[in-house]
Amino acid sequence: MTHYRLYYAPGACSLATHIVLEEIRRAGLADYASTRLVLPSGDQKKPEFLAINPRGHVPVLSYRLEGVEGVLTENLAILKFLLQQHPEARLLPSAPADEARAWEWLSWLATDVHSFAFMMVFYPARFAESLAAQAEVEAKGRALLTQHWVDLESRLPAEGFALGAFSAVDAMLIVFYRWAKRYGFTPQSHYPRWAALSERTLARESVQAVFNDERINLTDALPPRPTHLFQIGVTP
Ligand SMILES: N[C@@H](CCC(=O)N[C@@H](CS)C(=O)NCC(=O)O)C(=O)O
User: Fold this and answer.
1) Which of 26, 82, 160, 232 is the most buried (most CB within 10 A)?
2) Sheet of strand 68-73: strand arrangement
3) Nearest residue to 198 (alpha-carbon basis) of 206, 187, 183, 212
């Protein structure tokens, strides 16, 4: 049986990979261990982690496959690898057009939502020097995210999961629902389909197990923002 190790930070984008791994484990298809990193403590910049991922990001997946050891970074690449290795977990639709739709969601969430808009809110100091300019960057990021939430809500079904059956898309969506709540977008009041979908996702045993393991919930408080934002990330 394949064995994986996931390097994650509580509530970070690695949460999606963690849920996918837990679903795979519960389906009896593979086992995994995990290593926890605390981003506000700077664990991701410590030499022992940089030796594994010089970019200093989670998630990282290490694995042993047919006797060969490997390390993979980048959320989408890790998800693609896991979903391809374990199609029996049924975490992606099988019809090509439906599978492409899943990747449309995952790609949009990882790029437009995470790497673009949320980064402006998390790390405005990466985009501008003065405090006034940083405040503007953050405000623009928030406006972009609001547009994204309206778009997202309009694409979600009234029942079931994003693509009908539970899939990796729902594992990714719950990450951003939690971030949206923590950053004051009150998605529970404004986006009823997204809120109901998130409740259904949270009700899954795999998701509850991962939330317990990461020691997170949907209402935990935001940590204080570190002063040196560029070097040390906040926990989203
Ligand atoms: N492009 C990367 C981005 C990963 C990423 O930004 N991870 C964040 C957590 S959500 C991180 O590790 N931040 C630590 C830091 O920037 O110091 C991916 O998609 O995996």
Assistant:
1) 82
2) 31-36, 3-8, 60-65, 68-73
3) 187
Q: Average pLDDT, stretch 89-100?
A: 97
DSSP states along 53-90: -TT--S-EEEEEETTEEEEEESHHHHHHHHHHH-GGG-
pTM of this structure: 0.94
3-state secondary structure of 37: coil
Is residue 236 in contact with ligand 1, taking CB distance under 6 Å? yes
Question: d(Cα 32, Cα 178) in Å, to the nearest integer?
Answer: 24
Contact 119 CB / ligand 1 (< 6 Å): no
**Domains with residue ranges and CATH for the chain:** 3-89 (3.40.30.10), 96-204 (1.20.1050.10)
Q: Is 221 exposed, middle or buried (0-12, 13-18, 19+ CB in 10 A)?
A: exposed
- Which residue in 125, 133, 127 sits closest to 230, CA to CA? 125
- Ligand 1 centroid–CA 95 distance in Å is 31
The verdict on the CB of residue 110 being under 6 Å from ligand 1 is yes
Question: pLDDT tens-digit profile of 16-48?
Answer: 999 999 999 999 999 999 999 999 999 999 999
Answer yes or no: are the C-beta atoms of 235 and 12 closer than 8 Å. Answer: yes
Total residue count of the chain as it appears in this document: 236
Pocket flag, ligand 1, residue 44 (CB < 6 Å) = yes
